Amino acid sequence: MQLFPCPFCGPRDETEFHYGGDAGNARPDGTQVPIDRWANYLYLRTNPKGTTREIWVHMTCGEFFVMDRDTVTHKVLSSAALGGERAA
């Protein structure tokens, strides 16, 4: 079991969280978006080894936040509310 730090509720069991995607993967804007750009947005990921920045949602409180974690060690480096509030 791993504890994830929710910026709103504090440390909680990982089963209370749902992965929301890579932070910084901006959705294309507009109705005239080429198909290859939509495909890149939906399916292409960098899948880095090491530190990554991700969007997560705490299903208990329903809040979305950004979490920095190491994909090799699974260590959580930091978490922050989308507004900037920090948690350990």
TrEMBL record:
This is Sarcosine oxidase subunit delta. It comes from the Bacteria.
